[in-house]
Amino acid sequence: MPLEANVCPVSTKHMIQLHGFEELWGYVQAVHVGPFVFVSGTVSIDANGNPTAVDDMPTQVDNVYESIRQSLAAHGATLSHIVREAIVTTDLPRFLAEGAARRLAAFAGHSLPASAPWIEVPRLAQPEFMVEVEVTAYLPEFNPLSAAY
Q: b/e map of 111-142 (b: 16 or more CB within 10 Å)?
């Protein structure tokens, strides 16, 4: 039997658009299925989808984790709920030198997730992007009967 568009066969699926342009680009920023929140690869962009902090690794990292925090908050989660994180960068040595400390600062007061992989690639979706982070969060206290979406 074919699945209907936008229907998840395992549970109710709740989606958010952080900025509004995501649908035009063919994705949603975060999907909440059962106790899991899957946050799409997040880059340093403004509300119109334009790259920000061009050639500024520390600020791009700050912007990425702030966007992730907002995406998680829309589902009642925090950075402490992250159980898996994947980091993709166009310059791993520069990320380690300039961005890794900012990543740790973003997690201040929160538990650290399992983090794998940290990968260097030749380019991300736009040449100005230096880092992209994707996370999965787990909300053990999630009750679908009391969720207000």
A: eebeeeebeeeeebeeebbbbbbebbbebeeb
DSSP notation for 53-102: STT-HHHHHHHHHHHHHHHHHTTT--GGGEEEEEEEES-HHHIIIIIHHH
**C-alpha dihedral (119, 124, 129, 130), degrees to nearest 10:** 20
Q: Identify the CATH homologous superfamily for domain 13-138.
A: RutC-like (3.30.1330.40)
pTM here is 0.84
Instruction: Please classify residue 83 by burial: count the beta carbons closer than 10 Å to its beta carbon, then call 0-12 exposed, 13-18 middle and 19+ buried.
Output: middle
Amino acid symbol at 43: V
Per-residue pLDDT tens digits for 12-68: 666 666 666 767 777 778 888 889 999 999 999 998 889 999 999 999 999 999 999
Q: Would you kindly state where each structural domain of the chain is located, as residue ranges?
A: 13-138
- Tokens representing 35 are 């106790």
Please give the backbone phi and psi of residue 49, each rounded to the nearest 5 degrees, phi first.
90, 10
